[in-house]
Amino acid sequence: QVQLVESGGGLAQAGGSLRLSCVASGRTFSDSLMGWFRQAPGKERMVVAAIQWNGITYYTDSVKGRFTISRDNAKNTWYLQMNSLKPEDTAVYYCANGPRNGGSWRASSRYDYWGQGTQVTVSS
């Protein structure tokens, strides 16, 4: 059974940092696409960043230069380092996993497995 478990969310002040982790179990994930999404209250779930099996990374414009996605295949874990946080980064963050080939990395339909979500709150 595939399972993704996020951790690292919490409360931060504007300008601060948080690091999210996602540990995957149930199969090997080294050859797949790993991503982070977020959903703010009243808004739809949107992609934040993704990292391909070969290390290629993608970011949505609003987090470029502030967030960094990385992965440790040996640990079946991927991370989202969030720096220079802003109140508008407040959301529930979800990790997700999908096949190495398929549709756009931005599309939630690209991903087969999802974590339960972790709350990130940034105060001004």
Can you offer a commentary on this structure?
- This protein has 124 residues and is mainly β.
- 0% of the residues lie in helices and 51% in strands.
- The protein has no helices and eleven strands.
- The chain has strands at 3-7, 10-13, 18-25, 32-39, 46-51, 57-59, 67-72, 77-82, 91-99, 113-114, 118-123.
- The strands form two sheets. Strands 2, 4, 5, 6, 9, 10 and 11 form a seven-stranded mixed beta sheet that branches. Strands 1-3-8-7 form a four-stranded antiparallel beta sheet, with no helix packed on it.
Number of strands: 11
* Helix segment tally: 0
Strand content is over 45%
Q: Please give the alpha-carbon distance between the first and last residues.
A: 40 Å
What portion of residues is helical? under 10%
| Rg calculated over all Cα atoms | 13 Å
Encode the helix/strand succession as letters.
Answer: EEEEEEEEEEE
Derived structural class: mainly beta
Overall mean pLDDT score?
Answer: 95
Tell me the overall shape: globular
Uncertain stretches: none
User: Biggest sheet: strands, sense, closure?
Assistant: 7 strands, mixed
As an assembly, this protein is single chain
